Amino acid sequence: MPAEHTVKAFTEDLDKIERSLLEMGGLVEAQIARAVTAVAQRDSESAARIIEQDSEIDRYEQDVQEQVERLFALRQPVAQDLRMTISAIQIAGYLERAGDLAASMARRSIVLCETREVPGLYALPKLGDASHTMLKDALDAYRDRNIDQAKSIRHRDRELDDMYVALCRELLTHMLEDPHRITPGVHLLFVAKNLERIADHATNIAELVDYVTTGTRASEDRPRGRGFLMEGAPSPDDPT
Amino acid sequence: MPAEHTVKAFTEDLDKIERSLLEMGGLVEAQIARAVTAVAQRDSESAARIIEQDSEIDRYEQDVQEQVERLFALRQPVAQDLRMTISAIQIAGYLERAGDLAASMARRSIVLCETREVPGLYALPKLGDASHTMLKDALDAYRDRNIDQAKSIRHRDRELDDMYVALCRELLTHMLEDPHRITPGVHLLFVAKNLERIADHATNIAELVDYVTTGTRASEDRPRGRGFLMEGAPSPDDPT
Asked: Which ipTM score applies to this complex?
């Protein structure tokens, strides 16, 4: 039964790729959560470990790429299998980038230890939580091929953008009040931006659920938050 | 001669994908150059056109993805053809993201029109030029399968990181001197970050030249610039 044997080997290969992606995703999720804590608690030892572990995520990406290349060469997938194989490279790329963003937050948290504290940033761990959970849910939706859950993630991306804008305004107000907060404020603005970008990658992954399942690519006119454009942003002339 | 006919059709398909990628790249290059000018000259009309044109770049990405999917399904590429086909999805992704970064700069340039000018930012157009040229050269290296040129781009990425750090320090000094420059300064920091990211995408594309040609993926321990970590950054207590 060579045909059946081939089908079985093929399914095993696909499953193995998917397992690698989910393991990689779990590692990236943990890195993000740890990086947000390192920023909030000014924990430079934990930050150093996060930076070190980023290379493991890179190795996962390379491993997925090699598995995909082998599967293309040996098994020539079609239809949904083909779409799953193509999307695996893309998901590995998004996860690798999300891992980079976690490492970048960790690097900034080390510099933040040397700067004045910015008081009362309750919104930062909240944004971190939202972004981390979105990535987790996007990977769950991908694993379960759950189109409804994937769709809901696109809408959450907009809410997250609003949280991001509110946090940026808060940071800007602190920076205007006290020049000692300008340098830490800038780092925290970039940390917030990283979290917003991680949510974008989660959304990219969620959009691939539709593609893998139905073959249609999400149109690019994704609901867009206002970004951090600060129309009517706090100004030094405002009464404080 | 069905075999020869198939080979010819295959080569034509691959050539068409490559043409689409290079056209897409040309459009992205133009968007980046225009966005830097829009920021430097506070030209909100040009910025609006850049934002509008971003959807054309998205359509190119979708078109490349569809061509790749068709080629996989119909022609089952192997060896170098397989690698070229896989890398086409990745390059389209990097270019789409570089286009997004150009549109993001354009959006910030519109907000900048409403803020106080930050004087003497000679370094910004210089960074813009360097980043734009790197992307152009990466695409040329890809088109010509020129491994040496691709290698030189990795080293230029480091130089560009240094330019980026210098510009960030300059901006920070302006922000510390005059609180009216904090809001425009933050926007310009993000514009600088976008240009640094575009150069990263150029480096990603350059790394794929090696992969397509020889089958080896660049190791991830890319020479890393210091980033914008601002050790010893200007402080409000420094004499100015």
From this structure: 0.91
Mutation for B interface: A39, A186, A203, A214, most B CBs within 10 A: A186
Element holding B229 (H helix, E strand): none
| CATH assignment of the domain containing B133 | 1.20.58.220
Residue A142 lies in a domain: yes
Q: In B, which residues are within 8 Å of A55 by CB distance?
A: 220-221
Chain A, chain B: beta-carbon pairs less than 8 Å apart: 108
User: A52 to chain B: which residues are within 8 Å by CB?
Assistant: none
In a domain, B230, yes or no: no
Question: pLDDT digit string (tens) for B140-161?
Answer: 999 999 999 999 998 899 999 9
A220 to chain B, any CB pair closer than 8 A? The answer is yes
Domain of B52, in residue numbers: 2-214
In angstroms, what CA-CA distances link B177 with A180, B112, B173, B182, B235? 12, 18, 6, 9, 10
Total tally of structural domains belonging to chain A: 1
Domain assignment of residue A240, yes or no? no
In angstroms, rounded to a whole number, what is the distance separating the alpha carbons of residues B151 and B160? 15
